[in-house]
Structure formats: structure tokens, C-alpha cells
């Protein structure tokens, strides 16, 4: 009993350590966003601002159209997440459950496409999108993001499918379930955490992507958040830290909320559905 | 099967393109439309840029300018991609050191025939030279950054160091001697921020006529003689021999030394004139700062790397774009843009207006006066310079300023690098 | 094979293709074409410029590349970086995922916090970490100072020996969420019955971890470590903001090298050749890893 309590205590200590390591830049960013310019160059910086101010927020939001940029980003990222999962799920299932040469080639290719320095792909990609008139549209950007997120989605999802013991599906089939029923009742619940992880990945990588958004979108009204935020950084990497931190907070919160909303899905589901259903 | 697929994918593509915003706005009739990519990032300069564009648009219904904001870190990639993709902005802001290559690649319009003589005569020939590639003018230079020294007034007074008047600049020997006087207790005389050392060294080396690049009979090579060694040696000696410059600051860039400077850890801060803005906005209450004129060697010359406005060769409205550039950079506007970015205007009249408008305070007198010594340096016209800088010069200088190699080894590395790049 | 079996096999194959196509089609259009072009460029002297002629140069680029010491030194640093980040990241992420899988209090909150590095916009991440490592006013040095360990204050990014470890730490931080979330999701996929059955058989927690968790997690582990390795090898944006490859080239990553070759000096052909060589080497490394792992997993 005592050993178990020690284990628990150690677990909390470790968890706290992780939280500090992973979370402190966010806390620091929050603190910075309320600091007046003079407090950003103190030789002994403090976590709590001496004279907290909202000026950075006012400046960030009046100077750049962060609201519109956030809406643009949200639209692009959600579309990317949904499309990626819709497209990747069946393919991943096929890759994991049926051995075909096409499947092997596809998986290999998908990995290879991640390997090649993407900076070298930008210009050809740009030219293709120009051919089909998708430059300077969100649709073109979504298309690029989906293609970019697909390798991860495929590899991860097929890994998750492989994780589901084939016997469970076979057992369901023996019980007289049709293929679709098997998929819905047995596979889907077990796959839910993987789908959550994948859609989260697609969402966030689109939400944070800078380079393609910069190059593909020309009209100021289409600009996404990362591109807009970068405008607070000037020559030689000198940043206007206050407005940048304020704007970045706006960019960070939606992802965290999105995840807070989804995270329960990472545990629930599991086998419950398969057993009860 | 296959046909179905193609049909489905086509439908998908069409569907996708339908739901996106934006789209093409190209029209053959109506006013000329120009896209202007600006790199303004400071509050005041942003406001000035937007206001000037709005004013232009109101006054010129037949030439409408769309204001697009870029950023300094990614502008190179953005421009290169859009040049290659045939979708470049009509007018864009950048700097002389970087547009040379675009000009050589044929992407920039030659402004020599597009800009009026009145406009050209405002700017000195030395500055025009920095934007001239193969006899063609690649951009209109408008903002200059000279290297000055910002100092902590109280520490100067305490050490009995008097502030030199404009035109009475310290020599390097005096600068080093004063740094010695200022070094005591926990205070270093100087903080040399040398994270990106190459441009700094190249610019200052003109003080001793250090050219680095020598062209003979159409062939350019790197030479490191006594003139070239002056600046690196003096900086190195301050850090490791007289110990009047902080070794910690060597890895710093841009505004990194400010916390130490404001805390009195460093008495003097050599840097660009734009640092004055940080002084005004960020110095703690009661902190007194002063702008010292640029330090001089055998001459007071420094390399000029002006910010520029260029016009794309592929622009459909080059003439109109040039009109806009002239308007945007007229003396009054230029003075305003310079003030917003805390830099020095290239135009003579603009400089005079700026000193008048500010009363020469906050170092504006010193800043504007320093522009007279800015001129072209040999490295600015060498097409392999960016590669030499990143691959060889920067690592070698970083090693030298970290006391890992000797001055002679530095020289050898720079020369060998030149041989690799300038084949 | 009977006719029925054959017919079923054929219908299965059709199903497979139908399932695969929506994913492969966009990949085909938007990645195969640019990729093939990219690979081809590696055998040409393509340069940036308006109306420049490009000609096929065969293996010239590769001959030059063999003697390009700067590239190979960057490549070695790239391997240290990619292996360092991937391995440490995996170990730390596995620990965190196991913790987050436990019925601990504040678990939901902790899961959200674990995502922070991922959610913060990259543009500010590098800047925040520069503030952490700042020699005069950095958080790390400030913590050492307040903790009474003033003597340990250090110029983390400026010192030749600590620059690479310092950026590796940032790399680990930045990639933790992805790996953690995937492993956590993988842990959920391990059927609970197997755990229960093992527990009934009297297996200890460690034994269960080894005999149930690890084997079941293996496909996910393989996938995420391979992808992490590739991503880490290919990433350079963060390091660029932190050190720009300095001091003295100590953090010059091969992808940064290739990027500058293409975008700064306009040598598309040579940059693509660098890309090709890196792809070949990394594929070889991955092939060894994947083959062994997959065999283990299938055994």
C-alpha cells in the first residue's frame, strides 16, 4: 500500500516536471503580452509585470486584422482536418488489412515525399496550382495542406488499424455482422483515438503553417494568422515582442480549446463500444 | 473505372476552387492596378505607409495601388518564388545588398529611364552606385542605416569621458582608450553584438580602406591584407586583450545587449542608428543616453546598404509604378518614412526637413550627418557575396571572435572561401 | 484456387483500390509531379533567373558534392541533431504518455498543457527560446542566479560547445506533443482484456508493460519514430531563428544548407542534388530500421 502511494506521488512529481517544461514558454508569453516596452529589457525579468497593460493587445488588434486572419486560419485548418481524415481513413484501412503491391508502393512513396526538402518542391507546386487557377485561394492552400498531412495520417492510421486484433473483426463476422456493421461497431470505437490524434495533427499543422500560406496567398484579406503575426518581426529578427505575444496568444488558444474538447475522445470509446454493442 | 476517377477528381478540383475566396481580379479595362509589397513593421512607419498609399489612391483614380505587407525574414523567399511563378508584386521594398542578384537574374526593371532627373539628383552618386548593376538601376534607394555608438551618459560623465560633438568623431584609438576608462567593476566599456559579424566587419572596414574584394582584369578575388585585418583585430583585442568588451555579447544579435546596457553592464553600444528608437521606448526612467558620431579610422567611410523600392520587370504598369515610387519618396514623404523607421533618408532635402522637424534631438543631428560618409563598398557588387558570407566569412569571423582561431587563420579561411565561391 | 476464391480476391482488390484512391489522387497530382521534377533538377545545372537555359549535366553535381566538406560537416551535425532529438523525444514522450494514461487528477488539464509547444505559433517559439537562453537577461540564467548557482550561468547559444545541445533541447520540446499524443492514442488501442488477462495470470506491471503494452504499441512506435526522424532531419526553421547555423557553423543543419543553396544563392540544381543524396542516405537508414522492426512486429 505504502509502495503504491509512493508511486502515485512520484507520478505527480514527474507530471509536474513535464508540465513546467512544456508549459512555461506559454506562461512567459502570457506575461510578456501584458508588459510595457520598458519591462521587456529588464536584466532580472519578472513573471508578474510591475505595471500590467493592455496596450499590446490594443496595438496588435488595431494594427493588423488579426480577427480576420484568425477566421481565415480557422476555415483553412478545419477544412484540412476534415478532408484529411475523410480521405485517409479508408486508405489506411485498406493499407493495413490488405497486402497489395500498390499499397506498399503508396506507403513508401508517402514516406519519400516527406523526405525530400520541401523548399525544392515549392516552385513546381506553385506552377501546378497556377495551372488550375488555385493560386491565391484558400482551396489551393487546403489542397496543399491535405497532401502534406496525408503521409502522417496514412502512416499513423494504418498503424492504429494494425493494432486492432484481426480476431475481433473475425469474431464479429462469425456472429453474423456485415462488414459495415463490423467497421462501425468494432473498428470505429477502437480507432477513435487515432482519428483524434490525426485530425488534431492536420488541424494544427495547417493552423501554424507559414511558408505556403505566404507564397500562395497574395490578397491581404486571405492572409492566415502565422503570416500576419510574422509582420511583428522586423529587420535582423528584432521583434515587437509585446504585440507579437498578444497576437500569438490569440493564435494559441483555439488549438488548445480544440484539443481540450477532443482530448476525452483519446480515452473513452476504446473497447466499450465493441463489448456492449 | 479510370474515366470515372478523372471525372470525380475534376469535380473535386472544381468544387474546391469554387469555395475559395479571392480569385482573379484581372481586368483589361479600368484603372491600372499595382501591388505594392511593403516591409514596414514599426508602428509609425506602418501608419505612414498606409496613409501615403491611401492618399495616392485618392489622388490617382486611374492608378490604384494595393498595399500588401510582407516581413523582412521571409521576403526573400516570397519574392524569389513569385518571380519564378510569374506573379511578383509590381513595386516592392527591399535592400540594395539583396536586389543585386534579382537584377542579375533579370527580374527587375531598369529604373534609370523611368525616374526623373529631379528625383535622381536628390541622392548622391555613391548611394546610386550601391543599386546599380551592370549599368542598370535596380531600385530607388531611400533609407540608410549608419553605424553609430550609443552611450550611457552617466557612465561617460563618471569616467570623465566627454561627448564628442557632431563632426568631432573619435578615432578608433580614442574609442578604444575611452572603452578602457569605462571598464571597471562589473561594467564593460563596450558590447559588440556579433551574431551576424560579416556585414558589420565589411561596413566598418571601409574606415581603414579594407576592401576584401579586388577585381583585376574581370576576375574578382578575396584578399586579406593589413587594411582588412584592422577592424577584426581591434574588436578582438577589445574582447580578449584589453578586456574592455564583453565576451558574452559576441553571440548577441540586434537588440540583445539592451538589458545589459540599461543595467549599466555595458557603457557603450555600437550599432545601427535605429537603436535610438529602443532608447526612446525602452530605456528605464532616468536613464540618459547619447548618440556618438560614427568612429573613424583613416577615413569615416562606411558601406551603405540602403533600403530600396524596386519595380518588377514583368509588371504591366512600369511607368505608373515609377510615378508611384517618385511620389512615395518625395522629400516630405521620405522624411516621414525615415522618422517612422528611425533611419536616415537618402535625399538631401528629406534629410534637412527631418533635422528641422525633430530639432536634431534624439540623435537625429548625428544620424543625418553620418549619411554623408556612407558610400559603396566593393563587396556590394560581388555576385557571390551572399554565398561567401554565409558559408565562409560568418563561421570564420565567429570563430575568430570566440578566440578559437588566430588572425592569420581567419585571413586564410576568408581567402580560401573566396577561391571556392568566386571560381 | 477455386473460382469463388478468385472472384473474391478480385472484388477485394477492387475494394482496396477504391479505398486507396481518394488519398492517392491528390498525392499523385501535388506531390509526385513536383517531386519527380525536383529529383530531375538534381541532374541539371538549373539556376534562378528569368529565361535561363537549363541543361542536363548528369552526375556533375554529385562529383562536386563528394568534395563539398561544408555539406558533409553539416550532414554529420544533421545526424546528431536528428538522432538526438528523435531518441530523447521518444523516451520523454513515452514517459509522458504513460503518465497521461494513468487515472491521475488534472489529467485532462495536463493533456492540454502537453500540447502547448505544438499550439504556439512557430514565429514566436524561436523568439521565446532566445529569451530563455539570453546570456544577460535569460530565464535559464536568471533561474540559476536566483537558485544560487550563479557560477553555472552560461552563454548557452553563443558557446561553441553548448550551442548544439541547447538547440536539441528546443527541438525535443517542439516535437514532444505530436509524439506524446500519438503514443497516448496508441496506448488506448491496446485492448484492455489483454492487460486483464495478464494481470489474472499474475504478471507485474513491468511484465505487463513488456509483454502486452510494448508489442501492441510497436506498429505505432515504428510509424512515429520513423516520421519523427524524417521531420527532425528536415526541419531547420527553429534552429535558423535561434542561431542561424552559428556559432562557427556548429548548428548548421543540412536542410538549412540546401535551403540556402536554393533560395539564397539560386543554385536549384545543386540544391536538388543535395536533396537527392540526403534522401538516399536517409532511406537506407530507415530501410534497415523498418525492416528489422517490421519483422519483429510481424513475428
Automatic annotation (TrEMBL), chain A:
The entry's localization annotation reads: Cell membrane
What keywords appear on the UniProt entry?
A: Cell membrane, Membrane, Transmembrane, Transmembrane helix, Transport
How is the protein disposed in the membrane? Multi-pass membrane protein
Give a yes or no for keyword Transmembrane in this entry.
Answer: yes
Predominant location category: membrane
Which PANTHER family is this protein grouped with?
A: INNER MEMBRANE ABC TRANSPORTER PERMEASE PROTEIN YCJP (PTHR32243:SF18), MALTOSE TRANSPORT SYSTEM PERMEASE-RELATED (PTHR32243)
Q: Which family does it belong to?
A: Belongs to the binding-protein-dependent transport system permease family.
What is the name listed in the Swiss-Prot or TrEMBL entry for this protein?
Carbohydrate ABC transporter permease
Species name: Phytohabitans maris
UniProtKB/TrEMBL annotation, chain B:
Q: Which InterPro entries match?
A: Bact_solute-bd_prot1 (IPR050490), SBP (IPR006059)
> Where would one find coiled-coil regions in this protein?
none
Q: Which Gene3D superfamilies match?
A: Periplasmic binding protein-like II
Q: What is this protein called?
A: Sugar ABC transporter substrate-binding protein
UniProtKB/TrEMBL annotation, chain C:
Record carries keyword Transmembrane helix: yes
User: Which Gene3D superfamilies does this entry report, sorted A to Z?
Assistant: MetI-like
The record's subcellular locations are: Cell membrane
Task: Give membrane topology per the record.
Answer: Multi-pass membrane protein
Q: What InterPro entries is this protein classified in?
A: MetI-like, MetI-like_sf, UgpAE/MalFG_permease
| Transmembrane stretches, start-end | 16-36, 79-100, 112-133, 163-187, 217-242, 268-290
Q: Which UniProt keywords apply?
A: Cell membrane, Membrane, Transmembrane, Transmembrane helix, Transport
Alphabetized PROSITE patterns for the sequence: ABC_TM1
Q: Where is the ABC transmembrane type-1 domain?
A: 75-289
Q: Which PANTHER family match?
A: ARABINOOLIGOSACCHARIDES TRANSPORT SYSTEM PERMEASE PROTEIN ARAP, BLL4140 PROTEIN
Per the record, the similarity remark reads:
Belongs to the binding-protein-dependent transport system permease family.
* Name listed for the protein in its UniProt record: Sugar ABC transporter permease
This chain's source organism reads Phytohabitans maris
Amino acid at each position: 500500500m505504502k509502495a503504491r502511494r509512493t508511486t502515485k506521488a512520484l507520478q505527480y512529481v514527474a507530471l509536474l516536471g513535464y508540465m513546467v517544461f512544456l508549459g512555461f514558454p506559454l506562461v512567459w508569453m502570457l506575461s510578456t503580452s501584458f508588459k510595457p516596452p520598458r519591462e521587456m529589457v529588464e536584466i532580472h525579468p519578472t513573471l508578474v509585470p510591475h505595471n500590467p497593460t493592455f496596450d499590446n493587445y490594443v496595438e496588435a488588434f488595431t494594427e493588423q486584422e488579426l480577427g480576420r486572419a484568425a477566421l481565415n486560419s480557422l476555415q483553412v485548418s478545419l477544412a484540412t482536418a476534415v478532408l484529411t481524415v475523410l480521405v485517409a481513413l479508408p486508405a489506411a484501412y485498406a493499407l493495413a488489412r490488405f497486402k497489395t503491391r500498390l499499397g506498399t508502393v503508396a506507403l513508401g512513396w508517402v514516406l519519400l515525399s516527406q523526405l525530400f526538402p520541401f523548399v525544392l518542391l515549392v516552385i513546381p507546386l506553385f506552377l501546378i496550382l497556377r495551372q488550375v487557377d488555385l493560386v491565391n485561394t484558400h482551396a489551393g492552400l487546403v489542397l496543399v495542406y491535405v497532401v502534406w498531412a496525408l503521409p502522417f495520417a496514412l502512416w499513423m492510421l494504418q498503424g492504429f488499424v494494425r493494432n486492432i486484433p484481426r480476431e475481433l473483426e473475425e469474431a464479429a463476422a462469425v456472429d453474423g455482422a456485415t462488414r459495415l456493421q463490423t467497421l462501425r461497431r468494432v473498428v470505429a470505437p477502437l480507432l477513435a483515438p487515432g482519428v483524434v490524434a490525426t485530425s488534431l495533427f492536420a488541424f494544427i499543422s495547417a493552423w501554424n503553417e507559414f511558408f505556403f500560406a505566404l507564397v500562395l496567398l497574395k490578397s491581404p484579406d486571405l492572409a492566415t494568422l502565422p503570416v500576419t503575426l510574422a509582420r511583428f518581426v522586423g529587420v535582423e529578427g528584432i521583434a515587437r515582442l509585446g504585440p507579437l505575444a498578444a497576437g500569438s496568444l490569440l493564435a494559441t488558444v483555439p488549438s488548445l480549446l480544440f484539443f481540450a474538447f477532443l482530448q476525452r475522445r483519446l480515452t473513452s470509446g476504446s473497447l466499450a463500444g465493441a463489448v456492449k454493442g | 473505372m479510370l474515366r470515372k476517377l478523372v471525372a470525380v477528381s475534376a469535380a473535386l478540383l472544381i468544387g474546391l476552387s469554387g469555395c475559395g475566396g479571392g480569385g482573379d481580379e484581372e481586368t483589361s479595362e479600368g484603372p491600372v492596378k499595382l501591388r505594392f509589397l511593403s516591409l514596414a513593421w514599426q508602428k509609425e512607419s506602418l501608419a505612414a505607409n498606409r496613409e501615403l498609399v491611401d492618399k495616392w489612391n485618392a489622388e490617382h483614380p486611374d492608378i490604384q495601388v494595393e498595399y500588401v505587407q510582407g516581413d523582412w525574414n521571409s521576403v526573400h523567399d516570397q519574392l524569389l518564388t513569385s518571380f519564378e511563378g510569374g506573379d511578383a508584386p509590381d513595386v516592392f521594398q527591399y535592400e540594395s545588398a539583396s536586389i543585386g542578384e534579382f537584377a542579375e537574374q533579370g527580374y527587375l526593371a531598369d529604373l534609370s529611364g523611368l525616374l526623373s532627373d529631379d528625383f535622381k539628383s536628390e541622392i548622391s552618386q555613391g548611394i546610386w552606385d550601391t543599386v546599380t548593376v551592370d549599368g542598370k538601376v535596380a531600385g530607388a534607394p531611400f533609407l540608410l542605416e549608419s553605424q553609430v555608438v550609443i552611450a550611457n551618459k552617466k557612465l561617460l560623465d563618471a569616467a570623465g569621458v566627454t561627448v564628442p560633438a557632431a563632426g568631432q568623431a573619435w578615432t578608433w584609438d580614442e574609442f578604444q582608450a575611452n572603452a578602457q576608462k569605462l571598464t571597471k567593476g562589473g561594467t564593460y566599456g563596450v558590447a559588440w553584438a556579433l551574431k551576424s559579424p560579416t556585414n558589420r566587419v565589411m561596413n566598418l572596414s571601409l574606415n581603414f580602406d579594407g576592401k576584401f574584394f579586388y577585381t583585376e582584369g574581370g576576375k574578382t578575388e578575396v584578399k586579406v591584407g593589413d587594411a582588412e585585418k584592422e577592424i577584426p583585430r581591434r574588436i578582438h583585442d577589445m574582447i580578449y586583450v584589453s578586456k574592455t568588451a564583453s565576451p558574452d555579447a559576441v553571440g548577441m544579435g540586434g537588440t540583445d545587449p539592451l538589458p545589459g546596457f540599461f543595467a549599466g553592464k555595458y557603457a557603450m553600444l555600437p550599432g545601427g542608428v535605429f537603436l535610438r528608437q529602443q532608447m526612446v521606448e525602452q530605456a528605464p526612467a532616468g536613464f540618459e543616453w547619447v548618440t556618438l558620431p560614427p568612429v573613424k579610422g583613416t577615413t569615416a567611410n562606411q558601406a551603405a546598404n540602403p533600403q530600396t523600392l524596386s519595380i518588377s520587370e514583368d509588371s504591366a504598369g512600369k511607368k505608373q509604378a515609377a510615378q508611384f515610387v517618385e511620389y512615395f519618396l518625395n522629400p516630405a514623404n521620405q522624411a516621414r518614412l525615415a522618422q517612422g523607421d528611425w533611419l536616415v533618408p537618402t535625399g538631401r532635402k528629406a534629410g534637412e526637413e527631418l533635422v528641422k522637424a525633430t530639432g536634431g534631438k534624439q540623435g537625429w543631428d548625428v544620424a543625418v550627418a553620418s549619411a554623408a560618409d556612407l558610400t559603396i563598398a566593393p563587396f556590394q557588387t560581388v555576385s557571390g557575396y551572399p554565398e561567401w558570407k554565409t558559408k565562409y566569412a560568418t563561421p570564420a569571423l565567429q570563430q575568430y571572435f570566440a578566440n578559437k582561431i588566430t588572425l592569420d587563420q581567419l585571413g586564410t579561411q576568408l581567402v580560401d572561401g573566396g577561391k571556392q565561391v568566386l571560381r | 484456387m477455386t473460382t469463388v476464391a478468385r472472384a473474391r480476391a478480385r472484388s477485394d482488390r477492387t475494394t482496396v483500390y477504391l479505398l486507396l484512391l481518394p488519398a492517392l489522387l491528390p498525392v499523385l497530382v501535388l506531390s509526385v509531379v513536383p517531386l519527380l521534377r525536383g529529383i530531375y533538377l538534381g541532374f541539371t545545372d538549373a539556376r534562378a533567373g528569368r529565361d535561363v537555359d537549363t541543361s542536363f549535366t548528369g552526375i556533375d553535381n554529385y562529383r562536386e558534392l563528394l568534395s563539398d566538406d561544408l555539406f558533409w560537416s553539416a550532414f554529420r551535425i544533421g545526424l546528431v541533431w536528428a538522432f538526438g532529438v528523435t531518441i530523447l523525444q521518444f523516451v520523454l514522450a513515452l514517459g509522458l504518455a504513460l503518465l497521461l494514461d494513468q487515472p491521475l487528477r488534472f489529467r485532462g488539464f495536463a493533456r492540454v498543457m502537453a500540447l502547448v509547444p505544438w499550439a504556439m505559433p512557430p514565429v514566436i517559439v524561436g523568439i521565446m527560446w532566445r529569451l530563455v537562453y539570453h546570456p544577460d537577461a535569460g530565464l535559464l540564467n536568471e533561474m540559476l542566479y536566483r537558485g544560487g548557482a550563479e557560477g553555472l550561468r552560461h552563454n548557452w547559444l553563443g558557446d561553441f560547445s553548448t550551442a548544439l545541445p541547447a538547440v536539441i533541447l528546443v527541438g525535443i520540446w517542439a516535437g514532444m506533443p505530436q509524439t506524446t499524443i500519438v503514443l497516448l492514442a496508441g496506448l488506448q488501442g491496446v485492448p484492455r482484456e489483454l492487460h486483464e488477462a495478464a494481470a489474472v495470470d499474475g504478471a507485474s506491471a513491468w511484465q505487463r508493460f513488456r509483454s502486452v503494452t510494448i508489442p501492441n504499441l510497436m506498429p505505432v512506435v515504428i510509424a512515429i519514430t520513423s516520421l519523427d526522424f524524417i521531420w527532425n532531419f528536415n526541419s531547420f526553421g527553429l534552429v535558423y531563428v535561434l542561431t542561424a547555423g552559428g556559432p562557427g557553423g556548429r548548428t548548421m543543419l543540412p536542410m538549412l544548407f540546401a535551403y540556402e543553396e536554393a533560395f539564397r544563392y539560386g543554385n536549384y540544381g545543386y540544391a536538388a542534388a543535395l536533396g537527392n543524396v540526403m534522401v538516399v542516405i536517409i532511406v537506407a537508414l530507415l530501410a534497415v530500421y523498418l525492416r528489422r522492426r517490421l519483422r519483429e512486429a510481424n513475428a
